[in-house]
Amino acid sequence: MVKENSVNQQSKKWLVPTLVVIIAVLLIAVVLLMYRGNASDTAEDVSAAATSDSAAASTAASTAASGSASGATDSDLTSVEARDPSDPVAVGDVNAPVGLVVFSDYQCPFCAKWSDETLPEMMKHVEDGNLRIEWREVNIFGEPSERGARAAYAAGLQDAYLEYHNALFANGEKPSEELLSEEGLIKLAGDLGLDESKFTADFQSPETAAAIAQHQQLGIDLGAYSTPAFLLGGQPIMGAQPASVFEAAFEQALAAKE
């Protein structure tokens, strides 16, 4: 975690070019929503607007991701990878040749989609020892997201992070408000066979809150204001891109290590 505090200031610019396009698309989507008489600004409405009202958001993100996978960017942010063997929200060999940092939010529907469709493919590389994945929840959608992040961290302290994470994003859907309540999160821990007393203590502890705040600040410092966002082999990928985009980026990063 020490590495996260020493990120070079220049790294804040890694998402700016892509975010400018995506933010513009989102603003257009919001205007369209207002004309339709729907002024709701919830995370789900904005995400739906960006999907249904403009395919350009997906195109822009795909272009950025393709550029990253093909080496079109010269950014190298591998220093963001903590590589901390005691990190409870990471999976894979700490010395794996390739690292993947996931900036996510438990109220983000596209994060759920990525976890359901692409994460299983990436886990194959974790299992063969070539990839390490570290999650950094940025909690851009507020308190329920932060509760979910603390709960997943607490589960990680019982070596059950991935199991809990996958349960929150079951069937590729973002969790309900009920599930993201304190009671719902504690119940889920019990349903998964975790020690509820320990889970509750860790979930509510200042240490867990501080760790989540540090992860969130890392995302802010890097400009990860749109989720999901990724650093794969030190190169940025924006959005819930198809598994093929991540496979191409992974293979390139792995080849660079050989």
From TrEMBL:
Pfam families: DSBA. InterPro entries: DSBA-like_thioredoxin_dom, Thioredoxin-like_sf, Thioredoxin_domain. The chain crosses the membrane at residues 14-35. Residues 62-76 have a biased composition (Low complexity). It comes from the Bacteria. One of its GO terms (molecular function) is oxidoreductase activity. Gene3D superfamilies: Glutaredoxin. Residues 49-255 form the Thioredoxin domain. Keywords: Disulfide bond, Isomerase, Membrane, Oxidoreductase, Redox-active center, Signal, Transmembrane, Transmembrane helix. Residues 62-88 are annotated as: Disordered. This is Protein-disulfide isomerase. It comes from [Brevibacterium] flavum.
